């Protein structure tokens, strides 16, 4: 599966070229200090991009993402993005996104494996 497949599965949207480029930078271990992206081009998608990179290249990705914004509306948008991803990863077979189940199952297993402690696998809370 490609980044485009995972992005669509997690977000329900096709990716922009800059989002694919950022994923490639992440997986190469090149992390920008900031992302200055114009309004309307999907700044909150940095979150699923980071999560996909973490699932596919955990050896080079930091386990935490610091996401700083200066507007409450962006905070609310970011919260919605994270809640959508959590729903999809917790229930990949839901009829609303079942067509993406293989990608969601794979990503869910990879990410849960990163949080495994003493043989126990966490769920996405």
Helix and strand topology:
Layout: H1 3-11, H2 17-27, H3 46-56, H4 72-90, H5 101-114
Helix pairs in contact: 1-5, 2-3, 3-5
Explain this structure.
The protein has helices at residues 3-11, 17-27, 46-56, 72-90, 101-114. By secondary structure, it is mainly α. Helix 3 (46-56) packs across helix 5 (101-114). The longest helix has 19 residues, at 72-90.
Kindly summarize this structure in a few lines.
With 125 residues, this protein is an all-alpha fold. It has one domain. Helix content is 51%, strand content 0%.
Write a concise keyword list for the protein shown above.
125 residues; mainly alpha; 51% helix; globular
pLDDT averaged over residues: 88
Distance between the termini: 26 Å
- By DSSP (H or I, 4+ residues per run), the number of helices equals 5
Classify the secondary structure makeup into a structural class. mainly alpha
Helicity range: 40-55%
| Low confidence ranges | none
Give the H and E element order.
HHHHH
How would you sum up the major sheet? none
Strand content: under 5%
Q: How much is the radius of gyration in Å?
A: 14 Å
Shape descriptor reads globular
Number of strands: 0
The number of distinct structural domains comes to 1
